[in-house]
Design brief:
The chain is an alpha/beta fold. 32% of the residues lie in helices and 24% in strands. The structure holds flavin-adenine dinucleotide and nicotinamide-adenine-dinucleotide (NAD). Belongs to the class-I pyridine nucleotide-disulfide oxidoreductase family.
Length: 477
């Protein structure tokens, strides 16, 4: 057995592994990255997550827009060709693979081993019968889709995000289980490709991590697009004649014909193959015990990405990697900051959320004010037909007119909400006071102008009669 000594070994070449491996390489360290196969390089995001889903959504939106053109006298005809849709998705993945592949990384000086890693001691791993050791090791092994067994459900018509981008037909009746971001994005996309989509969730509303007023706006838009929801419900079984039996909490039963079933019911961690006990890494209920610096009970082993089990997003992995890089290289150690985290659900309209939500604010006993405004108060919302959109902000409860209050969190539901929200995300993460928004001139007509309007409207409410009198006196001098 050969012993290879590294400064850092990273297990997993997804969003969690790539950033830290390349960051440390750039700083001149000897780094090894391991993944199970060459096809897995780029991880879930590139292969079965963010990239193919966003490419699919792009195609579905074009098809949807083409149907809208008939309102203005242009008629489109024909049915989407799934093979052409898949070709588009693959071409976009291949473009990104140009800078996410084994040869590219090796040329850059990164050592890459293809194989399954398992710990053999506190600072070493066994991969393909070889032994590799390092000062520090990062576990970036991701997560996988949770699945449940349903009586009568045939595997050949059951999909998760790991298989859906290989589908070679557009299901006529497509049942989605779970109403989280995965099913919302993919359910709407398939509906726009022509499937009749049914979504079943055992909870009482869609996107349960969002504020109810925000998820309600999306819910109504999706219902308008002919997506059928069964909430507070579960799929009991699939009958021999291909009907899904869906039962709600009141015991009412509905039977729906189905041609395909998608499971978007959350994620699972699986560390079994890693043999964590050999490295003295503690777990509780299948999760790795971590401190606020993403460090395990073995002080030389850290976790990044979905495996850390806090936020499961590609940019959460980036946040983890920034923290790890800082803490490896700087004497000023940082802790994981969860209170300013943003995310976007790429439905149409999109949902963008950042910072603290109302439940967190209450739990933290923070004095806040809740402000809401609709895009009917924004001229771009009117010209571009999204007056139904909504902006929700949580702002420090302070004297508004002073302008020193800070935005603690918020949410937006509107087309392109992910882009519109960027300045709010900056204001929140950098702790910028609301007067900076008031002092900014927003080009007309932009959707982000609503950020200024919501604050201005609230400031005006604080105007006292004596203030108006002083203003009038000054004017008349
Ligand atoms: C449909 C869908 C859409 C999504 N869209 C978005 C989005 O738009 N924006 C966003 O921010 N997030 C999105 N996400 C979430 C995002 O994809 C994940 O949070 C992210 O990819 C996780 O990265 P990771 O590196 O932690 O894990 P992964 O990308 O899963 O990488 C883990 C890697 O570790 C390897 N591995 C595991 N065990 C071993 C071992 N023992 N030895 C060697 N290698 C091993 C695996 O092969 C894998 O390549 C989406 C997820 C889904 C399912
Ligand atoms: N745009 C993005 O950034 C994006 C997109 C997709 C996924 N993601 C990431 O992936 C993660 C996983 O997403 P997800 O949608 O799979 O999970 P989720 O946990 O967010 O939602 C799962 C839903 O399934 C429901 N559910 C669970 N078991 C059920 C059952 N037996 N019957 C009916 N309903 C059931 C739950 O009530 C919940 O509403 C997200 O939390 C997010 O971090 C991000």
């Amino acid at each position: 057995m050969i012993k290879n000594k590294y400064d850092l070994i990273v297990i997993g070449a997804g969003s969690g592994g790539l950033g830290i491996a390349l960051g440390m390489l750039e700083m001149g360290f000897k780094v090894l990255m391991v993944d199970k196969s060459e096809e897995k390089i780029g991880g879930e995001c590139l292969n079965t997550g963010c990239v193919p889903s966003k490419a699919l959504i792009h195609v579905a939106n074009i098809i949807h827009q083409s149907t809208k053109a008939s309102d203005f006298g242009i008629k489109s005809s024909g049915a989407p060709n799934i093979h052409k849709v898949k070709k588009y998705i693959e071409s976009k993945q291949n473009t990104i693979r140009r800078h996410e592949n084994v040869d590219y990384f090796r040329e850059k000086g990164l050592d890459v081993v293809i194989g399954t890693a398992q710990f053999s001691s506190k600072n070493s791993l066994e991969i393909n019968n070889g032994e590799y050791s390092a000062k520090n090791i990062i576990i970036a092994t991701g997560s996988k889709p949770r699945q449940i067994e349903i009586e009568g459900l045939k595997p050949e018509i059951t999909f998760t995000n790991e298989s859906i981008f290989e589908i070679d037909f557009i299901p006529k009746n497509f049942l989605f289980i779970g109403a989280g971001p995965v099913s919302m994005e993919l359910g709407q996309a398939f509906s726009r490709l022509g499937s009749k989509v049914f979504i079943v969730d055992r909870g009482e509303r869609i996107l349960k991590k969002e504020d109810p007023v925000i998820s309600e706006v999306l819910f109504k838009k999706l219902e308008e697009e002919n997506i059928t929801f069964y909430l507070n419900a579960e799929v009991e079984k699939i009958t021999n004649d291909g009907l899904a039996e869906i039962k709600n909490k009141q015991g009412e039963l509905v039977r729906q014909p189905i041609d395909a079933v998608f499971m978007g019911i959350g994620r699972e961690l699986n560390f079994e193959s890693l043999q964590l006990e050999k490295a003295e890494i503690k777990t509780v209920d299948g999760k790795i015990v971590l401190n606020n610096k993403l460090q395990t009970s073995n002080k030389n082993v850290f976790v990044s990405g979905d495996a850390a089990d806090n936020f499961k997003f590609s940019h959460a992995a980036e946040m983890h990697n920034m923290l790890l890089l800082n803490n490896f290289l700087s004497p000023f150690k940082k802790k994981l900051e969860k209170d300013k985290f943003p995310w976007v659900t790429f439905t149409n309209p999109e949902v963008a959320t950042f910072g603290l939500g109302e439940i967190q604010l209450i739990n933290k006993s923070i004095n806040y004010e809740r402000l809401e405004i609709d895009f009917s108060e924004n001229d771009r919302g009117t010209t571009d037909d999204f007056e139904y959109g909504k902006l929700l902000l949580f702002i420090e409860k302070k004297m508004f007119l002073a302008g020193s209050a800070k935005i603690l969190g918020g949410s937006l539901v509107a087309p392109n909400a992910g882009e519109i929200a960027q300045e709010l995300i900056l204001v929140n993460s950098a702790g910028i006071a609301i007067k900076k928004i008031m002092n900014k001139t927003y080009p007309y007509p932009t959707a982000a102008d609503l950020h200024k309007k919501i604050i201005r409207d609230r400031m005006v409410k604080d105007l006292k009669p004596w203030m108006k009198k002083v203003a009038q006196m000054l004017y008349n001098i």
